[in-house]
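Worked example (supplementary).
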Amino acid sequence: MTNSSLSSYDEMLGADGATRPAYSGYFEWLKDQPPELLRRKSSEAEAFFRKTGITFNVYGNEDAEERLIPFDMVPRIINAAQWRRLSRGIEQRVRALNAFLHDLYHRQEIVRSGRLPERVLKRNSAFLPQMAGFTPPGGVYTHIVGIDLVRTGEDDFMVLEDNARTPSGVSYMLENRETMMAMFPELFTKVRVREVSDYPRRLARSLAACAPPAASGHKPVVAVLTPGTFNSAYYEHAFLADQMGAELVEGSDLKVENGRVAMRTTRGWQAIDVLYRRVDDDYLDPLTFKPDSVLGVSGIMDVYRSGGITIANAPGTGIADDKAIYSFMPEIVEFYTGEKPILANVPTWRCSEADSLAYVLDNLEDLVVKEVHGSGGYGMLIGPTSSRREIAMFADKLRANPDNYIAQPTLSLSTVPIFTKAGLAPRHVDLRPFVLVSPQGIDITPGGLTRVALKKGSLVVNSSQGGGTKDSWVLDD
Amino acid sequence: MLGRSANGIFWLFRYLERAENTARLVEAGFRMALTRDAADASEEWRSVIVTLGLQGAYQAKFGNDYAASNVFNFILRDRDNPGNVLLMVEQARHNARMVRTGITREVWEAVNESWMVLKQELARTVTETRLGGLLDLIRRQSTLVRGAMEGTMLRNDIYYFARAGSFIERADNTARLLDVKYYVLLPSVSYVGSSLDNVQWDNVLRAVAGDRAYRWLNAGRMEARGIAEFLMLDGRFPRSLAFCYAQLRNYLDRLADEYGDRLDTHDIVARTYDWLKSETIESVFETGLHQVIGQFIAANNTLAQQIQRDYRFTE
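After joint prediction of all chains, the assembly is encoded as:
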């Protein structure tokens, strides 16, 4: 894959070396900036992030409890027309995801129709039987969604992954913009970029619109549930609670009282109407799920099912972003919307199917193989950059448990330049736009989180694997 | 606000106050030790360790060897000292992260920066050459946090809990200093007016940054009784017990106003406040300086515990 940059689509420069239109305003500004100034700004940015405490905890690395996700100063720019198309595709997909979840936990028409094999659900721990027959307040399952997009050409955007449980990274979207505006204020007077800063307000509004029946008659009380300061995304939990003016609670602050979930305040117990939880399903309720969990609240599921609280995202949404389900997304979109998918899937082989498994085993050196339930870039094989030994070892794991894996071609992801000591250099990127769902509609913030692989030629953009981030611009018309 | 957050902010400011006072104490000890012979210097460092309540941990490591560099490194950064200054600042920052939604960005950044700067400075052994600058830095960082808080925080329950934490801790620290040094302030036959007395008194005042203020108020005359009165009962001096309690009563009353609810906390703070108000330095010495200070420390502790109970700091 070291050569992948050669054939990749670069978002800033065309094959002839000319600047693409989306970047012309930025480039105009950039050519007047002295290189020393940019270098100084780059180190300022790091100091700024450290001071602000925008850190990220890496699991399995005790020495570095908190690490920075590197920030690159060159923005990733998407023009208005491209964004319009993306938005339509994202909205369609998110609508389908919610309809799919509702169907899975009710009549399962999609299974009855034969479009989705029953076995995908049967063996899936992300499917929660406790949710069967229950409709969450407002009928919303995925209040917050992150759709991971990759690009391979001018108009070729594909969905790499749907994040329907607890997508993270939105604080980076916001802080990256703040940082850019603080470092280069004049740039924003030259290029018209759409705002992202009102995301927290929109989130608060969207959550409040999903209040449960028990909240009628007063302004809904919203709280953010975090596993605590040692969680890798703690900064984001605190940031969002702060920006929404909501309480940031931990399991130890909560108990069930009089059919409500209440938090221990300095003035007594106060009922919560909407809980934006950043705790996984398994840890949510020790009475229903993991009995030894201290991160959740005993009895919250009973309160939930009786209309005493809204949990966002709804428990059991994980089934929709499972990688085994992912490969069926084109069918799912068509089944629930009656339309062709606007955004394509990345071609995916399900190793659970004998033909596919045979193909995957024969072509491991060209494929990316992922665990069905994995995330964050852990436990995957990237064929082209792996040694024979690694591939052989992975093949054994694959044969032993084929259902656990899917495979995808190694995509030639698009590149955007990053700022290096030697000047601009292209690196592979992806994009995670953030989507809010409420009974009032689907709200997509223009922009998102661009993750960038900082190593030359690398395709792994995950922050846990050394990726960085960029400010993502959607241009105004 | 959450009870857990109230606890977090209360202790955030207790830790910061303690870190600052510890720096002052070390500074006074260092200065004292510089002007004395080895035996007296060692005795001075021992008294610093005792004041900080660290004698057990210290002796376990160094026995009775109170070499200056051992002492201040132990206090500032030694991992065998669970209450070292670096850990205090680290704990303060941990609490600040926990209550991140309750403090302004500026307060958070000031706390975070204190931790970053001190972590770097205390990563290696502190030499006598570096000590002065370092203690100065600790005080300065503390001042920055206080300034950010004064300038940016809303005056509501969060602020009141922060202030309560600061003044409970400050009152405790001043009282502990008096508790260890009380014999210096007792009227004594042999040393009256001697230069040794002057140095000792000066040192007590320096440890609470009260030397200039005291001199100014007393036209330079040093006298044991006057110093005890100043540190305990003078409501104008910001590190005196009386000042701390006037502040505590004020902020806790405002909390009662905001919540519309007076609790046991308020009776306790009023009782101690009134008690300090009714004392004169003559009555203090009549009862016994040591005994009065002991009573005060206990009362202050009772207040801290009642605040934690009344406002549901923990389950």
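Two points are worth noting when inspecting this output. Residues 32 and 102 of chain B are 41 Å apart (CA to CA). Residues 1-153 of chain B form one domain.
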